[in-house]
Amino acid sequence: MWRSALQLDRALSGSTLLGTDFRVPALAALDLAGRQVESTLARGKHLLTRIGPGDGPGPGTGPGTGTGLTLHTHLRMEGAWHLYKPASRWRRPAHEARVVLRTSEWTAVGFALGVVELVARDAEDTVVGHLGPDLLGPDWDEQEALRRLSEDPARPVGEALLDQRCLAGIGNLYKVETLFLSGVSPFRPVADVPDLGTVVRLARRLMTANRMTPAQVTTGVARRGQEHWVHGRAGRPCRRCGTRISSRMQGRPPRERITYWCPSCQPNP
């Protein structure tokens, strides 16, 4: 999400929209042509594209007529934003497109987006106000994240780290890799984690190290099949001790995720 925001921000910010196409029923009649894209930023797993005010009401202008708007999108599991030069062929089928933003230099296409909505600029908190501090955000606040994580001391730390209300941005891969490197079982209660601050700082370091590339390397080795310590390696030997990596579902539907850990390196007393 951080890379998607950076790419959209670099390509679109400061440019005037020549045309827009919102392929979701609630926004199908909307036309933001003539407005300027001001910025795109990530908040956890959410993208916020800020678009300046229009010159007049016009047809189908939607919420916030005459004021700045924010396009809120979320990729979920299948979504992606692509950037194309005008008239270039899209790499995904057109029927998967949910949003198309056109400028003189670029066409930005959001495919299979899980969330597409427009809100007035001053209403952004209605869509991301519930999120905790963003690990890659300029306003990262470690103490606030630790406070939120500690509000439910009996909660398994693997569940707490994935709760975007505690801290925004950690996905399942970074959760399991961070906990392995910290020697902490994902099922250990938050209150029993020896140094929760060290765990959070490690997650932030891993995410920061990978933020500019599509790879998610936690071992320091980018070769295929060697990028991760435990993620996706159920039944295979631990890279440190040789014990077979375990896996099982953790959390409650619909937020349960498969978690991986080494029973020897991450004991749960």
What does this structure look like?
The strands form 3 sheets. Strands 1-6-7-5 form a 4-stranded antiparallel sheet, covered by helices on one side. The protein has a 4-stranded antiparallel sheet with strand order 2-3-4-8. Strands 9-10 form a two-stranded antiparallel ribbon. The two termini are 36 Å apart. Helix 5 (172-182) packs across helix 6 (196-210). The chain contains 6 helices and 10 strands. Helix content is 20%, strand content 20%. By secondary structure, it is of the alpha+beta class. Strand 2 and strand 3 form a beta hairpin. It has 2 domains: 2-128, Alpha-Beta Barrel (N-terminal domain of MutM-like DNA repair proteins); 142-261, Helicase, Ruva Protein, domain 3.
Main sheet strand line-up: 1-6-7-5
Order of helices and strands: HEEEEEEEEHHHHHEE
Number of domains: 2
The number of strands is 10
| The CATH architecture of the largest domain | Alpha-Beta Barrel
Any idea what the CATH superfamily of the largest domain is called? MutM-like, N-terminal
Number of contiguous helices: 6
Query: What low-confidence regions span 5 or more consecutive residues with pLDDT below 50?
Result: 56-62
What portion of the residues fall into strands of 2 or more residues?
Answer: 15-25%
Q: Kindly report how far apart the N and C termini lie.
A: 36 Å
